[in-house]
Amino acid sequence: MIKKVLVANRGEIAVRVMRSCREMGIRSVAVYSDADRNSMHVRYADEAYRIGPPPSRESYLNVEAIIGAAKSSGADAIHPGYGFLSENASFSARCRQEGIIFVGPDPYAITTMGDKIIARQTMIKAGVPVVPGTTEKLKDEQEALEIARQIGVPVMIKASAGGGGKGMRLVKHLDEVGSAFRRARSEAINAFGDDSVYIEKYIESPHHIEFQILADNHGNVIHLFERECSIQRRHQKVIEETPSPLMNPELRREMGETAVQAAKAVNYKGAGTIEFIVSDNLEYYFLEMNTRLQVEHPVTERVVGVDLVKEQISIANGNPLPFRQEDLRQTGHSIQCRIYAEDPDNNFMPNPGIIKHITEPHGLGLRCDGYVYEGYEIPIYYDPMITKLISWGETRVEAIARMKRALYEYKITGVKTNIKFLEKIMDTRDFIEGKYNTHFIENNEAMLHASRPCGIECEDMAIMAAFIDYIAKMESIQPPRYTDELGSNWKDFGRKRNVLRL
Ligand code: MV4
């Protein structure tokens, strides 16, 4: 039985994982770099270990230091969160060698899905539809050209070791195949140390729809329905929601079953995601599998009513899944907005710094997964995402209204954020109608970068006016007189003008 979990991560996801540990009566161990000495995950954990200097290579990717911390603390298990070591097969193997439970899949599943050519071969064998294209590494330019001619342009040349948009090249004309092949291959060798590339037919204006799956050690594999993740910028997701506005019940059942087949094909254990691209005419293709908990997992948690981290730990403990496919339902609608410390007016440049003031939204139908606090300095070394806002409503309309309310309530100064940008997305017709694909942001460029008639400018004016008024009053103000011996006269504030003597 797992009694203590080391969380090999930082930021909101480290806190998120520790929250489930606390509910389960499991002690949590934080690891931190020198840049994270004052981070929330260190404060939240039951104990914390320094693992190195700020750069990820020397801290959150430092396997020796993390294993060392796990041994010193006596942790039974390591949860990797997302990013960092979460999809590193040798880390998963190393944990096992050291007698530590890795809360995630075994090295085989990670390796198979990590190599996109092997993943394609494995999916074809399992009867899962993949994008038409090659199933072997391209030998040379000549072969690339022949295949591009066969399947017809446009095509994409992709790095086998890539994923998430890294090492891809779009080819629109046959005469570009040679140079695209050479560039993709050199990018692949530089970025991943593996020059294998393959070709796929290019699916125009696709939707990115992924299915959450859970698999235990007893042969049970279920899916927890889909997430629509098409709203992204340069392969960085911005908004996710479930159910997908594109989906219908038959397609959902079919894609869900396909996702389960895909997971079974690699003997998957734990929580994972099968990523599909879906064309406008609802043809769907396996794209890749993410062998980890994802950033967008909360929308699924909210609509399906499952704590995915709790299930991950339970599976790692060897327990069977506590529910069957037919027990699961989607209830209502959930949307997640990622709040980044970045400047939308300056090409979304990360904008780290000290949080001067922060007021986060709360209230009915809202979850706010974050880690920053007033006075906290967002380090320059890591991802600039600071908070995830997750709204829920009976209907999509209600979920949008709540998200708008939450974005309105969110006040943060000291760093620039994409909050106004997200508010503008909420007001975009294509979003409101649920008619969008992966080109949403570029298709709505003008709308999303226009300043709103009474956006930031008016609000800032009002804040400044209120502040000047406040300062002016501070100069002449007397402390309030308490009229009731037994307590304060708070009930009278705003009712009787003569209570507070200015
Ligand atoms: C594609 C594609 C169109 N056709 N493959 C981007 C991320 C990586 N997972 C794969 N990606 C794509 N692969 C074929 N054959 C379009 C994309 C793509 C995309 C996919 C999902 C979400 C956003 C995207 C944005 C641009 C391109």
**pLDDT below 50 for ≥5 consecutive residues: which ranges?**
498-502
The CATH homologous superfamily of the largest domain: ATP-grasp fold, B domain
What share of the residues does DSSP label as strand, in percent? 15-25%
Largest sheet report = 8 strands, antiparallel
Instruction: Give the names of the bound compounds.
Output: ligand MV4
Q: What's the shape?
A: globular
Top-tier CATH class of the largest domain:
Alpha Beta
Question: In DSSP terms, counting alpha (H) and pi (I) runs of 4 or more, how many helices?
Answer: 17
Strand order of the largest sheet: 13-12-9-10-11-14-19-18
Structure description:
The chain is an alpha+beta fold and 502 residues long. The protein has three domains: 4-103, Rossmann fold (3-Layer(aba) Sandwich); 132-201, 2-Layer Sandwich (Dna Ligase, domain 1), CATH 3.30.1490.20; 207-448, ATP-grasp fold, B domain (D-amino Acid Aminotransferase, Chain A, domain 1, 2-Layer Sandwich). Helices cover 34% and strands 24% of the residues. The chain has 17 helices and 20 strands. The protein has helices spanning 11-23, 40-44, 63-73, 89-97, 107-114, 116-125, 141-151, 177-192, 249-265, 297-304, 308-316, 396-409, 419-426, 429-432, 440-443, 445-449, 456-474; strands spanning 4-7, 27-33, 47-52, 77-79, 101-102, 155-163, 166-171, 197-201, 207-215, 221-233, 236-242, 270-278, 284-290, 333-340, 342-343, 349-350, 357-359, 366-370, 385-393, 411-413. An eight-stranded antiparallel beta sheet has the order 13-12-9-10-11-14-19-18, with helices on both faces. Strands 3-2-1-4-5 form a five-stranded parallel beta sheet. Helix 1 links the parallel strand 1 and strand 2. Helix 7 crosses helix 8 and helix 12 (396-409) packs antiparallel against helix 13 (419-426). The longest helix has 19 residues, at 456-474. The protein is globular, with a radius of gyration of 25 Å. Mean pLDDT is 94; it is low at 498-502. It binds ligand MV4.
